[in-house]
């Protein structure tokens, strides 16, 4: 019984310490043809993260498999790139009103810095 209470307490503390990134964010990364921009609209409920993202290159995409645990964030988007469906995986670290992401798709990685708007 005591072990269960400790586990429940630990989960409660971790949930309480998780950053809340709900809102609009603007991110930039350096790409092969110069600077890239992407906006994110996040909705967080506990550790679950949903929302959408928009960029001029990939258009509008829905955020799936999103989670926030402490200062770590991860999610996936599925996008159309020139008629081809691609999956982009994002992982990042939250630091106040800034998130440093790394995205990975088809063997390519990009480092993003997002600022809360």
Give your account of this protein's structure.
This protein is mainly beta and 117 residues long. The protein has one domain: Lipocalin. The chain has 1 helix and 8 strands, in the order αββββββββ.
Secondary structure layout:
Elements: H1 2-17, E1 23-31, E2 34-45, E3 48-55, E4 59-69, E5 72-81, E6 84-95, E7 98-105, E8 108-116
Antiparallel strand pairs: 1-2, 1-8, 2-3, 3-4, 4-5, 5-6, 6-7, 7-8
In helices, the fraction of residues equals 10-25%
Q: What do we call the CATH topology? A: Lipocalin
The Rg value, from CA coordinates, equals 16 Å
Strand content: over 45%
Structural class by helix and strand composition: mainly beta
Domains (count): 1
Biggest sheet architecture: 8 strands, antiparallel, barrel
Count of strand segments: 8
Query: For the largest beta sheet, what order do the strands appear in spatially?
Result: 1-2-3-4-5-6-7-8
State the distance separating the first and last CA atoms.
45 Å
From the spread of the alpha carbons, the general shape counts as globular
| CATH architecture assignment | Beta Barrel
CATH class (first level) name:
Mainly Beta
Summarize this, please?
This protein has 117 residues and is mostly beta strands.
Task: Spell out the key features of this protein.
117 residues, mainly beta, 8-stranded antiparallel barrel, Lipocalin
